[in-house]
Amino acid sequence: MKPIQMVDTQTQYQKIKNEIDFAIREVIDSSAFINGKIVQEFAINLAKYLDVKHVIPCANGTDALQVAMMALRLQPGDEVITPSFTYIATTEVIALLKLTPVFVEVDPQTFCIDPVAIRNAITSKTKAIVPVHLYGQAAHMEEIMTIAREFHLHVIEDNAQAIGADYIFTNGIKKKTGTIGTIGTTSFYPSKNLGAFGDGGALYTNDEKLAANLKMIVNHGQSKKYYHDVVGCNSRLDSIQAAVLNEKLKHLDQYIETRRAAADFYDNAFEHCTKIKTPSRAAYSNHVFHQYTIILENVDRDELHKFLAKKKIPSMIYYPVPCHRQKMFSQFNTASLDIPVTDWLSERVISLPMHTELDEEQLNYISHKVLEFVNR
Ligand SMILES: *Cc1c(COP(=O)(O)O)cnc(C)c1O
Questions:
Q1: CATH number listed for the domain at residues 9-249
Q2: Which of 50, 98, 176, 270 could be cross-linked to 76 through a Cys-Cys bond (beta carbons 3.0 to 4.6 Å apart)?
Q3: 66 in ligand 1 pocket by Cβ < 6 Å?
Q4: Residue-wise pLDDT tens digits, 163-180
Q5: Are the C-beta atoms of residues 38 and 242 closer than 8 Å to each other?
Q6: The CATH number of the domain covering residues in 252-374
Q7: Protein residue with its CA nearest to atom 3 in ligand 1
Q8: What is the pLDDT of residues 211-235, one digit of tens each?
Q9: What atom in ligand 1 is closest to the CA of residue 200?
Q10: If you ran DSSP here, which 8-state letter would residue 76 be given?
Q11: Measuring CA to CA, which residue among 348, 342, 345, 353 is closest to residue 296?
Q12: How far is the CA of 376 from the centre of ligand 1 (A)?
C-alpha cells in the first residue's frame, strides 16, 4: 500500500507533470514573473468556470479577505459578523483592520454560520457578514442574503475551502459558492482543492465598480502607473503560480468527483457506527470535501489520533480552539461568549485523510482502523 498522507499533491502532480512543467517553462522563458499574461488568462478562465464577472488574483486567501474589507471601506469600530468555528485567517483580518469581530454560532449539521445567530447579533454598528463555506460545503446563502438585504449589510464569502461547490436556491437556480455575496475570496494554498505550488489567492465579484477598486487595492492603490488613488497593498499572484493553477483548473471538476467518491466510501464504512457522525449533506449545496470531518461521540479523540498515527494514518483537528477563545482576541473579551455548539464541535471533530489520490486499499485500511479503535 502507498503511504497514506493527509493531502497528496505529489501524486496529483505526477499525473499532469508534462502540462504543468511546460506551463512553468513558458513563464521562465518569458521572464514575465510578475503580471505575465498567464495571470490574466487564468483570471478569465476562473471567472468562466465560476460564472462570475470579475476575478482579481492576489497573493493569498488571507490578503483576499483583507482587500475585500478594505474595498468595502469598512471603518474602525464597524462590526463584522463571522463564525467562531473557522480558520483564524477569516477573523484575524477583521481585527487587523481595527474592525470588531462579532463571533456567532454555527449549525451543527453543516459546520457553517447559523443564520438565526446572525440575525440575533445585528446591531446599528453591523456592516458586514463573513460566511465561511467550511470543509467544502456552502453556508446557507439564501437566508444570509435575505438578512443582508434587510439590514443593508455587505457579504464577504470566505470560499477558501469550497471552490467549485454549487449553492442551490429554492427556485432551483444554481450558483457557485463565492459568487453570491458582495465579494467572494479564495485561497490557492497548495493543500486547498485548487492548490498552487506556493501561495496564491483571488477575489471575485459581479460588481464592476467594486472590481476596479479591488484591482487598485491589490496594486498599491494604483489607478494608472505611479498614480495612487487609495491606500492599498502589494498582493500579487505570480506568473508561475498562475500557470500551475491554469492547468489544474482544467481538472478541478474531476478532482472534486474523486473527493466525493472518497467521502462516499467513508460514509458507507461508518454508516452503522453510532459513535461516528459522518458529514451531513445540506439539501441546498453539494459538497466538494476539502475536508472529511466526522464528529465523535463517546470516543477519546486524542487517543484515536494517537492510535491512527501509530498505524501510519495521519489525522487532523480542524480546529481545536475556536476563534473566540484565541488570545489574539483578548481585547474583545470574547472568551466568555456563549457559543456552545462551536465549543462542542471543537472538542469532537476529527478530519481524516482527504485528497484526490486516495485509493480503495487506503480508504479501506483507514476506515477499518478507525472502526477498530472506536468499537473496542
Ligand atoms: C486557507 C484559508 C484561508 C487563508 O488562505 P491563505 O491562502 O492561507 O492565506 C482563509 N480562510 C479559510 C477558511 C481557509 O481555509
A1: 3.40.640.10
A2: 98
A3: no
A4: 999 999 999 999 999 999
A5: yes
A6: 3.90.1150.10
A7: 61
A8: 999 999 999 999 999 999 999 999 9
A9: 7
A10: T
A11: 348
A12: 37
